[in-house]
TrEMBL record:
GO terms for molecular function: uroporphyrin-III C-methyltransferase activity. Keywords: Methyltransferase, Porphyrin biosynthesis, S-adenosyl-L-methionine, Transferase. Residues 12-223 form the Tetrapyrrole methylase domain. It holds the Pfam family HEM4. This is uroporphyrinogen-III C-methyltransferase. Its EC number is 2.1.1.107. NCBIfam families: cobA_cysG_Cterm (TIGR01469), PRK06136.1 (NF004790). Residues 274-511 form the Tetrapyrrole biosynthesis uroporphyrinogen III synthase domain. It comes from the Bacteria. InterPro entries: 4pyrrol_Mease (IPR000878), 4pyrrol_Methylase_sf (IPR035996), 4pyrrol_syn_uPrphyn_synt_sf (IPR036108), 4pyrrol_synth_uPrphyn_synth (IPR003754), 4pyrrole_Mease_sub1 (IPR014777), 4pyrrole_Mease_sub2 (IPR014776), CobA/CysG_C (IPR006366), Siro_Cobalamin_biosynth (IPR050161).
Length: 520
């Protein structure tokens, strides 16, 4: 099925649960729908990690809060859904947790039903079970609780709670109170007044499943005081019951090597996810920010001409070096060969000694995937080093063909020219900067609040791209894990605290991130 056919012909709304924060808890169905949506209508509970996961160019409508912190009225949200669906779009209405668990999902579907708009509900992982799980609290356990109950702690306009405390106490199951931070005192008192033993274990968990998860374990009698001391804020939930005692033994989330850490990865979209997955597997929350995206120079007349010249009989029989300075460059090079239907047998028939140079191990690895094994990979990752090493290695009169980004480093060519080699610098792709405003705003806030434990940069252009995407300025002191000295230099210019990975590959980046995490 083509992408177009997958899109719906008439408008439809999918009411989708986004899970409690950890992007890994998005369901497979939700992930598929987000990729094909024409418009995503989302609210406040969605984390930055999840936001970074939404496709760049899909239209997004934020209905969490109006400026000035007023919630967008439900009626207005309903009208947006109706309007977008009637325009024939695939609308994904994304909500935190599960859409029907205190999410007003039912009301939204009723409004759609009334208008005859087709819809589907896609349940999500509800925070009421997942957040305790990330704190090491199983909501039921054969020794402690045979039921669990999810209750809203949201007070009525007059400040009272409509909770039947005696009934809850009598049930004896685990009690999970959502939206309960501001009414914590009333809830705990209500339970004790209804006869609950103040010694019963209780916990409050803030921003569960995310890198900023905090949990306080106490008793029904002491939780309020401890929670105030720790300054627990919403979103948070109260869990009451014997199962809370298990948190000490079963708590696992923060014990992971990168548990409690949050990183921003900036790279071209095409080859980002490997590092993200590695860091997530170690427990980190990862915001993937394609600060830059690449676009091939197309049609690439210069590449075509250079290839044609290479084939000409009687041309110099000297050495010819193909030089690659990034994995994207390699991919784009082969994409372009395909685009112009350049048959690789032509290269084989050229009577020249063709050699291949790569700036670092990741680029060399990419070449290997295409069956080319680099003759030269300098130990130190930098454009200057590549230029110097190549100048020393190439035989006199060699022809150097560099295929790389339009705005490539100025340090590669001079050493080659100095060695009187014939250099052709062919732009293969250009870098574009785009970050959707919702993510931009969220990330700026995270940086400002010191909630980012580190960022990764793989080239100076990703550094510039990121800062530009943030509006030209970032707070100083942000930890930057960089590939290459030039990249670190660029990051340092913006006041970042830099470390350089030992090698130019993902393993080395992961090692450096683990090292810096341990130091803290
Ligand atoms: N539909 C959502 C709940 C919406 S009500 C779900 O199924 O999860 C919002 C409340 O959920 C918050 O006030 C808080 O009590 C709870 N909540 C949601 N995400 C949370 C998180 N990551 N950590 C702690 N509490 C969370």
């Amino acid at each position: 099925m083509t992408e177009k056919e997958q899109k719906c012909k008439e408008g439809k709304v999918w009411l989708v649960g986004a899970g409690p924060g950890d992007a890994g808890l998005l369901t497979v169905k939700a992930a598929r729908l987000l990729k094909k949506a024409d418009v995503i209508v989302y609210d406040a509970l969605v984390s930055a990690e999840l936001l970074s996961w939404l496709p760049d160019r899909t239209e997004k409508i934020y209905v969490g809060k109006h400026a000035g912190n007023h919630p967008v009225p439900q009626e207005e949200i309903n009208q947006i859904l109706i309007r977008e669906a009637k325009a024939g779009k695939c609308v994904v209405r994304l909500k935190g947790g599960d859409p029907f668990v205190f999410g007003r999902g039912g009301e939204e579907l009723e409004a759609l039903a009334e208008e005859g708009i087709p819809f589907e509900a896609v349940p999500g992982v509800t925070s009421s079970a997942a957040v305790p799980a990330y704190a090491g609290i199983p909501v039921t356990h054969r020794d402690y609780a045979s039921s669990f109950h999810v209750i809203t702690g949201h007070a009525k306009k007059d400040g009272t709670l409509s909770i039947d405390f005696p009934a809850l106490v009598k049930l004896g199951g685990t009690l999970v109170f959502l939206m309960s931070v501001s009414s914590m005192e009333k809830i705990l008192k209500g339970l004790m007044d209804a006869g609950m033993n103040p010694e019963i274990p209780a916990a409050v968990i803030e921003r569960g499943t995310t890198a900023r998860q905090r949990q306080i374990c106490a008793t029904v009698g002491t939780l309020k005081e401890k929670s105030d001391l720790a300054e627990i804020h919403t979103p948070a939930m109260i869990v009451v019951g014997e199962v809370c005692t298990l948190a000490g033994t079963l708590g696992w989330a923060q014990k992971r090597p990168l548990g409690g850490k949050q990183y921003i990865l900036t790279r071209p979209r095409q080859n980002m996810s490997v590092l993200a997955e590695r860091l997530r597997a170690l427990g980190a929350q990862v915001i993937e920010m394609p600060a830059i995206r690449t676009e091939p120079v197309r049609p690439n007349k210069r590449l075509k001409e250079a290839l044609e010249r290479m084939e000409m009989p009687g041309e110099k029989k000297d050495e010819l070096w193909l030089v690659f300075t990034s994995p994207v460059g390699v991919t784009t090079f082969f994409d372009e060969l395909r685009e112009i239907k350049y048959d690789l047998r032509k290269l084989l028939s050229i009577e020249r000694n063709i050699k291949v140079a790569a700036i670092g191990s990741a680029t060399a690895g990419k070449l290997g995937e295409h069956g080319l094994f680099a003759d030269l990979v300098p130990e130190v990752y930098s454009a200057r080093e590549l230029g110097e090493k190549l100048a020393a290695e190439a035989s006199p009169g060699a022809h150097i063909m560099i295929v790389r980004a339009e705005e490539g480093s100025g340090e590669l060519v001079p050493p080659l020219r100095k060695a009187q080699l014939e250099v052709e610098d062919i732009p293969l792709y250009r870098t574009l900067y785009d970050v959707h405003p919702a993510l931009q705003e969220e990330v700026r806030e995270l940086l400002k609040n010191g909630e980012i434990d580190g960022m990764t940069f793989t080239s100076a252009s990703t550094v510039h791209g990121f800062v530009r995407a943030m509006g030209g300025e970032i707070p100083s002191g942000i930890r930057a894990v960089c590939i290459g000295e030039q990249t670190a230099k660029a990051a340092a210019e913006y006041g970042m605290e830099t470390v350089v990975s030992d090698r130019a590959d993902m393993d080395s980046m992961v090692e450096k991130i683990l090292e810096t995490a341990e130091e803290e």
